[in-house]
Amino acid sequence: MVTQPQPPRWTVEEYLEMERGSPIKHEYLGGYVYAMAGGTRRHSRISVNVTGALNTLLRDNPCQVFNSDMMVRIDAANYVYPDASVSCDQRDLADGGLASISYPILIVEVLSEHSTAEYDRGDKFNLLYKRIETLQEYILVDPQRIAVEIYRRQADGSWPMQAYGAGEEMVLQSMRCALPIAAFYERLST
Q1: Which range of residues forms the domain containing residue 98?
Q2: N or C end of the chain: smaller count of CB under 10 Å?
């Protein structure tokens, strides 16, 4: 019988050391390191719009918005880079030079056409993000059409989804505010 070669497992320390000096970002999942694919111009524009809209919305709020350069530590064995995240936890907000946050209340992923959309909706959400105890809302933004899905943690542990479309305003319960969906799609041709 021929066995398939397995990629080497990394320690968290090896991963974090490599990531500090790497020109590309990698996610760390259970000891394995995965290079992140680059995005399209449209994906990039929406990501910028998302972080900009959230930052403007939270200008007078103690919470802070982070872009895709900020790693989110799920637990000791899993680190990912969402397109945007928001934390209100003082442990994440102190300027101590940390390259990750651990207590986000909101995470946003801009879906990729083919490469990560199923992962963002499935395993990344169900196996990783749902484990973050502070996470209250998870937002998926469709780059191909004006469509946003938001999943909200309920007291019973369920995560019902609410969909928004063109002309609608999304309520962010975690921060007690609302945001027009159009803000995510500014300066894009439809």
Answers
A1: 38-185
A2: N
Percent residues over pLDDT 90 in the chain = 76
Flag whether 43 is in a domain.
Answer: yes
Name the pTM for this structure.
0.92
- More confidently predicted of 153 and 94: 153
Here the CATH number for the domain that contains residue 147 is 3.90.1570.10
The Cα-based distances of 187 to 28, 66, 94, 106 in angstroms read 34, 21, 34, 24
Q: Which two tokens stand for residue 176?
A: 């007690």
Q: Angle at CA 121, nearest 5°, toward 117 and 123? A: 105
pLDDT, tens digit, for every residue of 86-113? 999 999 987 676 789 999 999 999 998 7
86 close to 64: Cβ distance less than 8 angstroms: yes
Query: How far, in Å, CA of 163 to CA of 76, rounded?
Result: 33
Cα 184 to Cα 182: distance, rounded to the nearest angstrom: 5
- Reported for 64-67, long-range contacts at CB under 8 A and 24+ positions apart, including other chains, are 64/88, 64/92, 64/93, 66/101
DSSP 150-178: EEE--TTS---EEEEETT-EEEEGGGTEE
